[in-house]
Each structure stands twice: as C-alpha cells, then as structure tokens.
Amino acid sequence: MPLSRKIKRKAGVIGLGIIGANVAASLRHAGFQTFVWNRTPKPAPNFLGSPGDVAQSCEVIQLFVSDANAVNEMIDAMGSKLTPKHVVVCSSTIGMDGTLAAARKVQGYGASFLDAPFTGSKLAAEKHHLVYYVGGEEQVFVRTKPQLEASSKAIIRVGDVGDAAIIKVVTNMISAATNQSLAESLAIVRKAGIDPNVLAEALHHNAARSGVIDLKLPKMIEGNFEPHFALKHMLKDVKLGIHLAEQLGVSTPAAVSVASAMTQAVTHGWDNLDFSAVAKLNQDQGDASEAGDFEIVNES
C-alpha cells in the first residue's frame, strides 16, 4: 500500500509589505501551504485574487496592512467567506480602539479574532525572529500558535484582545523617543567636530545602550535610511499612543515632541524612509526643535 501523504498545514497572509512578505516566506519555510494577497499584485507563490479567496483557502489568516481602515476593509472583503472555523490574526498596529472595533467586526461575521502585533523590523522578519504580543482567548491562541511560531523567536501572552495592542504602541513610543534622542545627540557630536564613531564606541559601554541604538546609530552615521520600519508607520504608532494616553488622562510630553519632529520629517517627503531619517532634520534642515505642530488623528 502506498504511504499516506501528510496533509500540509494551510496559512493565509494579507499584506505583503516588508514584514508580511517575510512572514509568508517564513511560513513556506516551515512547511505551510501559504496563500497570500496584496492590494498591489506581487509575484508570490499562491497569490490569490482577493481577500475572500484567501479565506476560502485557509482558516487562519494573518493581517499585515497599514492602518485600522485597511484592517476593516480586509475584514469586510473576506466577509461572508468567514465562518466559525476561521481565525483572523491582526498583526497590524492599529491601537486599542481599532483592535477592539476589528474584533467586533470579525465576530459579527461569525469568526474568531486574535490581537497579535509584533516587534522586529526587516532583519528580524528575514530571520524568523519577530516577537509577537498576543491578546485573546486561549483556545484561539492555541489554534494560531504554530503559524505565529513559524516567523518568531518569542510569543508573549499579554491578556485580552486590545491589551497586546497597547503594549505594542507603548513599546514603539519608547523606540521612537530613543531614536529621536540619538539623532539629536549625533548632531551635537558632529557640530562639535568629534568623530561620530567615538559616540558609537562610548554608547557601546554606556547604560543607555539599547537595541534601537545598536540598529540605528550606524545607519545614521552612514546616512543610510533604507526602510526597515518606515517613518510614516512609526509616526502613526506614536500618534496612536498619544491618543490612548489622552483617553487615560496620561501626559506624554516626550511622545508629543517626537511626533512633532517626525511630522516635520514627513513634510520633507521622507515618509517612506526608515524612521531613523529624523536625523536628516539636523543634517539638512537645522535643529529638529523647529518642527511644527501636528494633528492627532484617531485612526480607529
């Protein structure tokens, strides 16, 4: 008798940007039959015609789209194709309000929802080293865990739907503030006529050293702002954090200042560069403290 073939696990990915494309590759590497869709067609294996086609082809679908409006659009596009067997895993950063609204929409279609944003940029995604923050029911998490494990080095259980979204936003606020402080410090060192590599060496042995500094300072010194995490996305996330803080009655002067500098950088057309491109404000446009005001947008 012929040996029975092992049935391949199936997975869906919607949104093939820097992270989504690498997650899809990680899933294929892990042996998943992976079905994908992106608003702009891409030459990817099993690229289907619509989000609904992805839902028809697999039961666990991970979203890597830009904002809350895009998440809601993808959920509606799957719409009637969603069943009680489906789990929509939201790995987009859309804040607490956006996440709760998306969960209600998915549940309204009869499917389950998992709040699963991630930390880690291009290099981490390429190495299957993302870290997921996960909020939601345990039985839903258990169903999605193998798919999340394929692209990650760690999964942190946070609590309920919406809780992981909060953790993601506040950690990005820290990264953005560190990045801004680093850009300003580098500008001071350069203006003083000191070799920037001395700053790098000093920070290597300093308590302020962090993963953000290790990743961003060499690129700032080189003037290499190839996007690993785009400025426009970091600005969105910091605005989400400020909005959340306002809801909770928390003051965030550092986040407001950082968002102002990033807004200035976006007005110079650097929105698709890495968020470390705020360093260009000092190189090209003078002191980042001259950055203008910005409007906080509730993206939920």
Please characterize this protein's 3D structure.
With 300 residues, this protein is of the alpha/beta class. It has two domains: 10-161, 3-Layer(aba) Sandwich (Rossmann fold), CATH 3.40.50.720; 166-290, N-(1-d-carboxylethyl)-l-norvaline Dehydrogenase, domain 2. The chain is built from twelve helices and eight strands. The chain has helices at 18-29, 51-57, 68-78, 95-108, 122-126, 138-149, 163-191, 196-204, 211-222, 231-248, 253-267, 279-284, and strands spanning 10-14, 33-37, 60-63, 87-90, 112-115, 118-119, 130-135, 152-159. The strands form two sheets. Strands 2-1-3-4-5 form a five-stranded parallel sheet, with helices on both faces. Strand 1 (10-14), helix 1 (18-29) and strand 2 form a beta-alpha-beta unit. Helix 7 (163-191) crosses helix 9, helix 7 (163-191) crosses helix 11 (253-267) and helix 8 packs antiparallel against helix 9. The longest helix is centred in the middle third of the chain and has 29 residues, at 163-191. The protein starts with 9 loop residues before the first strand and ends in a 16-residue tail after the last helix. Mean pLDDT is 93; it is low at 1-5 and 285-300.
